[in-house]
Amino acid sequence: MPSGGGSGVSPDSLLTYHLFDCILCPEMADEVTCPKCGGLTPDARFCKHCGEPLHTCVSCGAKISKDAQFCTECGLEVKPAEVAVEAGPKAYARYGPSLIPRDILIEGEEPLFETRPVLWLQLMPSIVFIIVGIAILVAVYFHFHIAEILYGCGGFFLLGALWGLLSWLDWRHTVFAATNRRVLRETGILRKSYVDCPLRNVQTIHLDVSLWGRINRFGTVRISGGGVEIDWESIDEPREAHRILNEIVEQYRRQPG
To answer: CB of 24 within 8 A of CB of 15?
Structure first.
């Protein structure tokens, strides 16, 4: 019989309920951010979204802490590249999965931060072209027949749409990224161009935000070092990108060896 006017549930049964809650509903457990896909997942061995191992030894699968240097089960040394730095999950949570080709990454290299130019800035010239062209035709309406006006508007629209398509393709194939080894820039639709700077050579990370950029929350981050200068122009949230890049470089420099 239960004692003392309580709810009638014993401590043992409460413990049992809590255990079953954790087993039957893993979402009730503590959540962590996956370093690969950026999704929130229960603090377990693998990410529920992409299957990425979470703080586990690559040899025996035992759970290890982020700052561990050796596995406590098998003694395997944990290399710095096997544990993502703090900026990684933050970057993926904001910008989504990796967009840079995996074939350009060397062994042990993982993307930590990626972004692109602001899309509406890329499309603005073509949109302005269409609007101005149609406005000019409407302004001279009385000097032409209606059919000529419609043909002219259609021509401006097609030219502007083609311009916009090319601008979108250029945006789609432009990626600015930082890995645990280097900072890089990828551009080009058919002919790809890659410029990179190893983290050990990075000397300055300059932030440039104009008045127009401050109003619309975009700007340029310029990375220089080792005779190389990489511009991440017109990116969204440039101050956050500047901060995360500094974190990546500082954590790289603090690694042993």
So the answer is: no
